[in-house]
Amino acid sequence: MMRNIKLTLMYDGSKFHGYQLQPGLCTVEGELRAAAKRILGEEIKPVSCSRTDAGVHANMFCCNFRTESDRECEKLLHGLNAVLPKSVAVTGCEDVPESFHARYDCLGKEYIYKIWNAKERNPFLEKYALHYPFFLDCNFLNGQAKQFIGTHDFKAFCASGATVKTTVRTVFDCGVKRENDLVVFYVRGDGFLYNMVRIMAGTLLSISEGNIKKDSIGKIIESKDRSFAGVTAKADGLYLNKVFYPEVRSSGEQER
To answer: Is the pTM of this model over 0.85?
Structure first.
């Protein structure tokens, strides 16, 4: 009997050319497919919740695939982790309804962007946070970030050349917080455009520097002009942090 399996992953994006399969390049999907082939003895075609770029990390990433294997989920999880590279880990494995789709059933995502805000760089955060040596006033930036909240046309915060049906997205919550020398920008929404979070982070840094006027994020959004927003912050500090789905009963029936 064909089963629909949902996997939850976490991975170090610095080791990969992004999530999506690319011939001749090391990707998370490529490693996952190869691991599943070894454990299940069959080719899988995972459906992903998102496509992270080269250098972008994931604290939580979800995908689903169909299989005829009767291997128990717990054994499948341990088997995959035994053969996957150390930079990828499966943290969850479960049977889900046939109709479940990792992308279309996703209710929203949360991204975080990490900034090491100290004069000297931290070698342990190389490739895992942007080093920014100038002081950041997190209370001020938190107030600026709140201007992103709401349903807007975020065309000004989308990389040029991106092909999407609409650039309208809803940001549920976002803000900036400090954990000692680590500054974290977080944003939760129903979906994100190509490079959107990195451009948002870059815009906040430009406001801190005075290169973009404070309280102007609303005007930038209204302009729909990419040139008015800040630079695209480096991929190193970006993490897909959480992915949200409707709760599902263990029996496979939708709870709501």
So the answer is: yes
